[in-house]
Design brief:
Length: about 350
């Protein structure tokens, strides 16, 4: 083989290698480069994240079907769990798109990129809003048990949940307006999926969507914890005494206390998984989200959405029973919605 032929072959090999590292090999001058990693590592990441995504969608779909189908589960607290399950379901669905960004390439175009982030923002905000509503629900149930049936009605809960989702969609449509008007305006190359938020607008969003709601959640649950502890001490100290009828009526039900513990675990896990998401948002002159900076925090948030149904299964016997009925297809039988689940 002549030296010129060898040089030509080497050039072709180098060019092929260079093209293999591009998101769009046919666009040599404008395509983004792929994030190169060992094949075994890439396969492991794909398998793990795909499994979490599928599990998240499946488990939360079971929660949605259970609460929607069985009439005995149509309580005010479960309506809030239904809203949370819907947001978690969409989180698992969006995770399929996040998997595409593992190698640093977005193949669905600029419009789908901005829609992906808009949905991610809306779902995140709606989840936090639902957590606030859950905290208010438990606060009234534990601290004001006599007023709970009058203050927390199914109609009011439905209105609050709808307002939570509508406000989240409206606010984040305004927040991402510049990105929506011209999708891909901040991309430096084809195959990148990036949005940029003005620092002041981003800071206001963090205060309204995270710091404020989290403060409310912590304050309310600290109050619930203090009241629950004081009531438990009072019950232990007077266990052998004859209590008045009024004292018995004022004390919250055992089921309410159990629900408070279960939902407290949900909220703690939620905050632990979500805090890194907003910590990343506070860095830099502009709030910049792309595949490299958001992958870890978004996947952590996705994991939380998978954990919520697991927590329900651990604390709520009705969820385990409803899963058995759904999996065995007994839910298809006439009158199954009237089944005794509790």
């Amino acid at each position: 083989m002549t030296s010129s032929a060898a040089s030509c072959l080497l050039f072709l090999r180098m060019k092929a290698l260079e093209e293999a590292e591009l998101c769009f090999p046919q666009l040599l001058n404008s395509s983004c480069r792929k994030a190169m990693r060992p094949h075994s590592e890439s396969m492991l990441i794909y398998i793990v994240l795909s499994s979490i995504s599928l599990l998240t969608v499946t488990l939360n779909l079971l929660v949605i079907i259970s609460i929607s189908h069985f009439k005995q589960l149509h309580t005010t607290t479960n309506l809030l769990l239904l809203s949370l399950a819907v947001s978690d379901f969409f989180v698992g669905f969006l995770m399929f798109f996040q998997i595409m960004l593992i190698d640093g390439c977005w193949l669905l175009g600029d419009l789908m990129c901005i829609l992906y982030y808009v949905l991610d923002f809306i779902i995140t905000s709606a989840s936090i809003g639902t957590m606030v509503l859950i905290s208010v629900d438990r606060y009234v149930a534990i601290c004001e048990p006599l007023h709970y049936p009058n203050k927390v009605t199914p109609k009011r809960v439905q209105v609050c949940v709808c307002l939570c989702w509508i406000c989240s969609a409206f606010l984040h449509s305004l927040l991402l307006n510049n990105n929506l008007v011209q999708p891909g305006r901040y991309n430096s190359c084809i195959g990148e999926c990036v949005i940029v938020i003005n620092y002041i607008a981003g800071l206001a969003d963090i205060v309204l969507s995270f710091i404020g709601p989290v403060t409310v959640i912590i304050v309310l649950y600290m109050r619930v914890f203090v009241v629950a502890v004081s009531q438990a001490r009072a019950m232990r100290s007077h266990i052998a005494a004859v209590t008045s009828q009024r004292t018995v009526k004022v004390a919250p039900k055992k089921s309410e206390m159990k629900a408070a513990r279960a939902l407290g675990v949900v909220i703690v896990v939620f905050l632990v998984c979500l805090c890194p998401y907003f910590c990343v948002s506070l860095t830099g002159q502009d709030t910049l989200f792309n595949a490299s900076t958001a992958a870890f925090v978004i996947c952590l948030f996705y994991l939380n959405s998978c954990l919520n149904p697991v927590i329900y299964a651990f604390f709520y016997p009705w969820f385990r029973k409803s899963i058995k009925i759904i999996v065995t297809l007994k839910i298809l039988q006439p009158g199954s919605c009237q089944t005794n689940i509790m």
